[in-house]
Known about the structure:
Distance between the termini of chain B: 28 Å
CATH topology of chain B: TIM Barrel
Strand content of chain B: 15-25%
Bound molecules: flavin-adenine dinucleotide, flavin mononucleotide, FE2/S2 (inorganic) cluster
Order of helices and strands of chain A: EEHEEEEHEEHEHEEHEHEEEE
Number of domains of chain B: 1
Structural class of chain B: alpha/beta
CATH class of the largest domain in chain A: Alpha Beta
Helix content of chain A: 10-25%
Mean pLDDT of chain B: 95
Low-confidence stretches of chain A: none
Oligomer: heterodimer
CATH architecture of chain B: Alpha-Beta Barrel
Shape of chain B: globular
Number of helices of chain A: 6
CATH superfamily of chain B: Aldolase class I
Strand order of the largest sheet of chain A: 4-3-7-1-2-6-5
Mean pLDDT of chain A: 95
Number of domains of chain A: 2
Number of helices of chain B: 9
Radius of gyration of chain A: 18 Å
CATH superfamily of the largest domain in chain A: Nucleotide-binding domain of ferredoxin-NADP reductase (FNR) module
Low-confidence stretches of chain B: none
CATH topology of the largest domain in chain A: Rossmann fold
Largest sheet of chain A: 7 strands, antiparallel
Strand content of chain A: 25-35%
Radius of gyration of chain B: 18 Å
Number of strands of chain B: 16
Order of helices and strands of chain B: EEEEEEHEHEHHEHEEEEEHEHEHH
Amino acid sequence: MYSKKLRVVKNVEVIPGHRLMGLEAHELAMAAAPGQFLHVRCSETLDPLLRRPISVCLADRERGTVYMLYRIAGKGTELLARVKKGDFVDVLGPLGRGYSLPQKGDGVAVLGGGIGIAPLYFLLECIKGIYGPDTDGVSVFLGAAAYTAIPVLDQVRAMGFSVHTATDDGSGGFKGNVVQLAEEVLGGRYPDRVYACGPLPMLKSLGQALGDHPAAEVSMEEHMACGVGACLSCICRVRAKGEEPEYAHVCKDGPVFKLRDLCLA
Amino acid sequence: MKLEVNIGGIIMKNPVATASGTFGFGLEYAGFVDLSRLGAVVVKGTTRLPRPGNPAPRICETPAGVLNAIGLENPGVEAVVEKYLPCLKDYDVPVIINIAGDTVEDYASLASRLDGCQGVAGLEVNISCPNVKKGGMLFGSDPDSAAEVIREVRAATRLPVIAKLSPNVTSIAAVAEGVARAGADAVSLINTLLGMSIDIKSRRPALGNVMGGLSGPAVRPVAVRAVWQVYRAVGIPIMGMGGIASASDALQFIMAGASAVAVGTANFVNPRATVEVLEGIESYLLENNIRDISQLVGAAHQGI
Ligand SMILES: Cc1cc2nc3c(=O)[nH]c(=O)nc-3n(C[C@H](O)[C@H](O)[C@H](O)COP(=O)(O)OP(=O)(O)OC[C@H]3O[C@@H](n4cnc5c(N)ncnc54)[C@H](O)[C@@H]3O)c2cc1C
Ligand SMILES: Cc1cc2nc3c(=O)[nH]c(=O)nc-3n(C[C@H](O)[C@H](O)[C@H](O)COP(=O)(O)O)c2cc1C
Ligand code: FES
């Protein structure tokens, strides 16, 4: 785990309202795993005070660069958007538990809703590393409100995966959401490995579609303060044994959880 | 240079501690901070039985502060004694357990359970938590009920007893006098200020528990004022906290009358905040040719 000011090597718009930031970070690039996140200070002043959790979107180990793909969502990410190449950003990480990687040959379905593609991009890059050119068994489902609002779609295609798209307005691919799309394409037969990240309603409907799938993994979001398991603020409900609710902590036990362990209702 | 301070019988090698609930059990930050450099580690609020805490969202950022409604999630005193305390014994640092309860009996039972427990340097009695339905702040909002809790805790343990005071009262000095008379060895202040925020998109309270406790730099002037008043009211040592993020912040508390300080919310922003506060205090003493930190305690009261 590192706490460092890192030099920004890139901070560019990829589609309206979404940006990609590259940071020079050799140790971090070596240490980061897909699904893990960075806790980023968006300003040196006391307002906004807290760090913002942003997934590692890619770790280029050879160049020693770590990338974050982020959506401008409010005060903090707006400030992040203004950071220039050559500036420094204070980053804590890599934090949390990421996705468990498949073994070569496992059937895989990857579902990303909107900015949910961010951690999945790194995962797909790792899957490509494991599988080599033969990625026939890997299906990728990406969705957003409109076709032009799916971030880094071309880059995912360029990796060589077969990508299916879903849009709310029908402007590209399937009209509907990614879970409905995956249902239709896979005919209800989900492969050994399912990975997802996206808004809560999407994860809920995936939970309903998958039932008790033993290996499906999803990344969760919750407001965070410390990012290291100390403040106990970032809870999500997990299946409890008794009457009392049971909580896990997204920053430490997650952000990636087995879908069947979660209580998303 | 002498940095050592004595907080009601707890010898701290320097005046910088961690604020309960913001530093876990210390281990979460051990990768960033050598815990042995700290004056004391104050761990998360502990109750008799395990508690799941409040529903989400538990935290909400506000200007230069945070509102939290964790609701005392903790594994219960037995797990703290068996699981967490042993991990801290490798560090050369006094461990202070923050205790909380629904009833006076809960506090007394925790105090007697922890009495004589290896690795416990003292108790911080949380009579000021704004985030639980029973107990907590209710006890701390009135000098008599605050004194009653402290009297029972005092009777149940030989450990040093620190009463943690709430700022959500008319006269914090009166509560401090009450707990001092009841046998508290020291006081710590402030706990969080009761606050609230509303999400205008959903038109709902921003926190799952509706109200929460405000902490961070936003509350600092309130905390410095509280330390100032309590210093004038009682003779027992004060551990000051509330929005400390730098050495200059900490020095304000010391000059207002705190013998020690605790760093809370600032840990979330800068995981090395505690040691940076300590190093800054050391530089200040050096630059100003002060040999003993105790010379600064209450310095701002001179002539007033
Ligand atoms: C593990 C994890 C990974 C994430 N990865 C990415 C990513 O790769 N790309 C990306 O664009 N976004 C990601 N997010 C969401 C991102 O953290 C929020 O969009 C961001 O914190 C918003 O900050 P803001 O100041 O712009 O918005 P504001 O609304 O002004 O933020 C106010 C407060 O709410 C918190 N907050 C608001 N939305 C969220 C949210 N969705 N999740 C958690 N906290 C929130 C902020 O951190 C801040 O404390 C991730 C969230 C988590 C928990
Ligand atoms: C997330 C969080 C959890 C806290 N939990 C406790 C607790 O369990 N017991 C307690 O006495 N105080 C608790 N506090 C209060 C702090 O110890 C401290 O008194 C307060 O936050 C003011 O200091 P600060 O502004 O430096 O954070 C908590 C504060 C925060 C922010
Ligand atoms: S953010 Fe503090 S415990 Fe997760």
